[in-house]
Amino acid sequence: MCCLPSGMEQSLYTKIMNENILKVSKIGLGLAIILICSLFILKCSEDKAGKKTSANNSESSVEDKKELITNAEKKNLPDVTSSFELKNKTFESKKVESDNVGTQVKKAVKTSVAKKAVYVQKQDKTEAGLEAKKENILAADIKLLEEKVKLLEERIKTIFETLKQYAEKKNENSAGEVDGFNTEKGLSQDNKIEDKVDEPSPFKYPTHVLAGGFSTYEGWTGYGLQGTYTYRMNDYLSLGVQGNGFFKDGKYKGDRQLYAGIRANFHIFPLIVENSNFDLYAGFTMGAKRDHAVTKLKTMGYFGMSYDFCRHWGVFAEAGNIGVVGLRLKF
């Protein structure tokens, strides 16, 4: 054995160990089987003993019950069976009562449902009757309105007829007056017409006015010419256009300037006196001035007055940034 290699020694060692393990396991299995069998035998013996004791106990309980029954008969106590029968009777009576209560409840529900249905039907009938009454009332109101409309038409017709008759009578009376016109009345009316012609016609403010005159330059240095046209829109306002040519150094061949723009006048005197030949006004102009080939925007303000000495002619004067005096033609 000593001369065997190390690998052989290990295989023999493992083989021996396996054999020992098998022996030990067989011994353990045998012991376990023995223990299980012994426990089973002990359990069976205990069950038998318990059954015997339970049988003995049941026999003793039966005997005790018999003794109790005999004692109860002796003492004239109620029997158990009779009490059980009483319980059954009470249960059956209660069941009958509950059945009676259920039937009563069902009847009450049925009656309430029937009453509700009758109430709903009555309500529907009443609503239908109310609607029918409303329709009848509306129809009656419509008839009354139609009658009223007819009466109104008849009244209108009668009014028109009376108006026609009145107009016819008036025309007849006027024709009679024309036929019975006498010469004296005719002469008097002619005289009245002549008197009206002789009376002076009331003054009216002119609608169109053309004006022109001499003006000064800014700062009242130099002189120039001005021409305007205005349209009288009402008693208090007039609009128009304006043109100016100025000689700044006071010489025709000197430095000149041109101006063109629109103008507006607010007439003050009609607020004080109506229909007067005299007038006061305030106004302004806005336009463009051209000086040395340069054009600029320029505005000017002024106060003015005018006097119409005849039907178409008058004089005026204005003072403000510049002064103007001239004649005006109105038509």
Overview of the molecule:
56% of the residues lie in helices and 26% in strands. With 331 residues, the protein is an alpha+beta fold. The protein has helices at residues 6-74, 80-179, 183-198; strands at 208-216, 223-232, 237-247, 256-267, 278-291, 294-308, 313-320, 323-330. The protein has three helices and eight strands. It has three domains: 1-77; 104-174; 208-330, Beta Barrel (Porin). The radius of gyration is 72 Å and the shape is elongated. An eight-stranded antiparallel barrel has the order 1-2-3-4-5-6-7-8.
Primary descriptors:
331 residues; Porin; 3 domains; 3 helices; 8 strands
Question: Could you give a quick summary of the protein structure above?
Answer:
This protein has 331 residues and is an alpha+beta fold. Strands 1-2-3-4-5-6-7-8 form an 8-stranded antiparallel barrel. It has 3 helices and 8 strands.
The total domain count is 3
Q: What is the CATH fold-level name of the largest domain?
A: Porin
Strand order of the largest sheet: 1-2-3-4-5-6-7-8
Q: What percentage of amino acids are in beta strands? A: 25-35%
How does the helix and strand content classify structurally? alpha+beta
Characterize the biggest β-sheet: 8 strands, antiparallel, barrel
pLDDT averaged over residues = 77
At the first level of CATH, what is the class of the largest domain?
Answer: Mainly Beta
**What coarse outline follows from CA principal-axis ratios?**
elongated
Q: How many β strands by DSSP? A: 8
Alpha plus pi helix count: 3
Question: Which parts are unreliable, with pLDDT below 50 for 5 consecutive residues or more?
Answer: 1-5, 77-81, 196-201
The appropriate CATH architecture of the largest domain is Beta Barrel
Helical percentage: 55-70%
Distance between the amino and carboxyl termini: 169 Å
| N-to-C series of helices and strands | HHHEEEEEEEE
Taking Cα atoms only, what radius of gyration do you get, to the nearest Å? 72 Å
